[in-house]
Amino acid sequence: MRKFFIGFLLFLVAVVVLGAGYGYYNSRDRHPGYSLDLTISAPAQPQPLKVGFSALKITPYLPDRWTDKNQDAAYKPDDGDTFTDGNNNGEFDAYWMAGFSQKRAANGVHDDLWARAMVIDDGKTRLAIVAVDLLGFTHKNVINVRKSIPASAGVTYSIVCSTHTHEAPDFLGMWGGSVLKSGVNKAYELFVEQQVTRAIVQAVEKLRPARLRFAQDLTGADSLLMDTRKPLVKDAGLYSMQVLDAVKDSTLGMLVVWGNHPETLWSKNTLLTSDFPHYVRAYLEKGISQGDSVVQKGLGGTVVYASGCVGGLMTTSPKVTIQDPLTGEQFKEPTFEKADAQGKHLAMLIYKSLQQDTTTARPADIRLKAHTIEIPLDNQLFRLAVGLGVLDAGFSSWGNFRSEIAAFRLGEASFLCVPGEIYPEIVNGGVENPVGADFRIKPIETPPLRSLMPGKYKFVIGLANDELGYIIPKSEWDTEAPHIYNQENKPYGEVNSTGPETAPKLYRAMAELLRDL
Fold first, then answer.
1. Angle at CA 269, nearest 5°, toward 231 and 75?
2. What highest taxon heads this organism's lineage (predicted)?
3. How open is the CA angle 293-253-326, to the nearest 5 degrees?
4. Given CB 3.0 to 4.6 Å as the disulfide criterion, which of 16, 33, 278, 420 pairs with 274?
5. Cβ atoms of residues 465 and 443 within 8 Å
6. Which of 429, 416, 437 is nearest to 506 (CA)?
């Protein structure tokens, strides 16, 4: 009996040691020693601006299809779901779709997913901006891309942001076929990183003398989204930068930023799609027709769509009715027709703003600041996911994620790059400390970040160079009863946030970054 207990004890010790070792390995720093503290001033002598664009597909090949017997958008063989083995390997080669819930396997492609790049060169600094049609692109992936960009491309600094579409493959790991297994396809992850790198290189190769046109519409898109959490503060403004060939006067491309979750297709869709950004880009590039009549001419070039302040959260849920701006038809239920009408409406608002409210900049120089920052991971579920390898992210120091913030100026515009889903009240104002909040404190994240940004046009790019989840004002944090605004249940948001210290820490760092930009 004594030998049995000793053996059992040794077995338990071995299990604990192996488990600890497994967790330690999964939480290892993927890029030890990586740090960035970058300040770039304008060139001493202004030079003609050059800009290049490119767009490369990141749509995966789906070898298998499946039959959803009960139409719940979740692959569950126990429910009678079956698959067609397209590559005859005897397994279901699923691409799990990020957002909403687990087990949502892609069952086809509606429209391609993209890595769309823009490179700006002022003669001193070469800045690359890439938007990918994914829910998130983590800082680990960003560094992988930076390390793979050839020196010959001459890129000074690169920004990779995600559109945050909820209809693309899982790139974080939390929406797989099992709670204990990552949903990321590692071969696909490598492919996307390579395509982002290639897109940057191609944009460099396409650099052309350029001039910029900035425009904004701060109110026109307000009805196309809703805020699902008090205080009700949106980031409904449409911010646009059109890039024109300085010689030919044709459109090379555009950068468009709007603060809304690309999830109009909602939770039962199983076709890969970039959601409404697909239609925004297509209608701006190719134009809008009704029958034989051209309603809006295509601008040409390559449109890069980026998301703004989507926390809170900003959404076009089935509660929001979208009206087609041409036919008047109304859509409430999540369909591609609804996403089409939404994208058409946005494209028409953007086009109109370019005709009315514009500032032309030529030449324009780049002034840029970027800084590495550590964010404490207080979310215990996320910590467990890191230890289990479900969330493929390492600690730069114990319990801390390495992340990054950046800001730059370009002519009459300034740009703030936020590494997650920031609540609009932190950017536009309106942070509160309602009764029921976990911390009885005055709002910390004030004054609003946009008020600290210079220039007439103030672009805030969310999910830039990382995806830290929701960035919630500390004074609005609520996980313990009683709950804010006399609500019976705790609000949604905290479960997908790194913790209550994220917003204060990022706010202070970004406010400092904007000083003297």
1. 115
2. Bacteria
3. 25
4. 278
5. no
6. 416
The Cα–Cα gap between 141 and 144 comes to 5
Q: Which residues of 406-426 are buried (b: 16+ CB within 10 A; e: fewer)?
A: bbbbbbebbbbbbbbbbbbbb
With beta carbons less than 8 A apart as the criterion, state whether 416 and 449 touch: yes
- Residue by residue, DSSP assigns 89-112 as SSS----BBPSS-TT-B---BSS-
In the block, residue with structure tokens 């099992």: 178
DSSP classification of residue 224: G
Which two three-digit tokens encode residue 370?
A: 């970027």
Name, in order, each residue with C-beta under 8 angstroms of 60's C-beta and a sequence gap of 6 or more.
95, 106, 169, 185, 188, 191, 272
- Cβ(157)–Cβ(127) under 8 Å? yes
Q: CA angle, 420 as apex, 392 and 304 as ends, to 5°? A: 100
The Cα 365–Cα 123 span in angstroms is: 8
Rounded distance, CA 121 to CA 166, Å? Answer: 33
**Cα(122)–Cα(455) distance, rounded to whole angstroms?**
18
Task: Give the CB-side neighbour count of residue 480, counting CA atoms within 13 A.
Answer: 5
Q: How far is CA 506 from the centre of its chain?
A: 17
The pair of three-digit structure tokens given for residue 96, joined into one six-digit string: 């799990």
Is 467:135 a contact under the CB 8 Å cutoff? Answer: yes
Burial class (CB in 10 A: 0-12, 13-18, 19+), 298: middle
**Rounded Cα gap, residues 4 and 12, in angstroms:** 12
Position 333, amino acid: E
pLDDT tens for the 517 residues of the chain, in order: 666 566 555 555 555 556 667 877 999 999 999 999 999 999 988 889 999 999 999 999 999 999 999 999 999 999 999 999 999 999 999 999 999 999 999 999 999 999 999 999 999 999 999 999 999 999 999 999 999 999 999 999 999 999 999 999 999 999 999 999 999 999 999 999 999 999 999 999 999 999 999 999 999 999 999 999 999 999 999 999 999 999 999 999 999 999 999 999 999 999 999 999 999 999 999 999 999 999 999 999 999 999 999 999 999 999 999 999 999 999 999 999 999 999 999 999 999 999 986 777 767 899 999 999 999 999 999 999 999 999 999 999 999 999 999 999 999 999 999 999 999 999 999 999 999 999 999 999 999 999 999 999 999 999 999 999 999 999 999 999 999 999 999 999 999 999 999 999 999 999 999 998 9
